[in-house]
Amino acid sequence: MRFEEAVLGRVINPEGVGKERTQLSRGVVLAIRELMKQTQPDDTSRDLAAFIALALLQIAATIDTSVTAWEKRGYWVKADRFRMDWAWAERFGNTMRQAVLVDDWGTVAMTSAQIAQKLMTVQVPVRHRLGTPWAGAWEQLRKLTG
């Protein structure tokens, strides 16, 4: 048991994983739009591609948390379908991560197009409050990969 749970009881996170997944998806869509505007690979391009990779891997990490409640209630088919619907996130996240680490911009472009296809229903308002979540993502990715 964690210290917070022992002292405070069960900690409830009002920012659920579904909301986190939605925010990350919007950030990825926005980053892909910006990446497609780039004419030459530069530091901004690396930040954008690294952010997309990290965000997709974070999305993939939220999937099991989402389906745990369904599995506890015996909704195995629903849980498995949800996992299959989001299985692409980890695969494309790893592909993007490897491509950006070795400066393989052809793979970055191809993978970005495939990701955009998967997220084509995600709406990002014109006056969004996302800012530039990709700032510093390249350094973060390099630190994570050692």
Please explain how this structure is put together.
The chain is mostly helical and 146 residues long. The chain has one domain. The protein is built from 6 helices and no strands. The longest helix is centred in the middle third of the chain and has 30 residues, at 43-72. The protein is globular, with a radius of gyration of 17 Å. Residues 1-12 have low confidence and may be disordered.
Descriptive labels:
146 residues; mainly alpha; 73% helix
In short:
The protein is mainly α and 146 residues long. It is built from six helices and no strands.
Question: How would you spell out the order of helices and strands?
Answer: HHHHHH
Global mean pLDDT: 87
Strand content: under 5%
Low-confidence stretches: 1-12
Our count of helices gives: 6
Helix-residue proportion: over 70%
C-alpha-based Rg, rounded: 17 Å
* 3D shape: globular
| Intertermini distance | 31 Å
The number of strands is 0
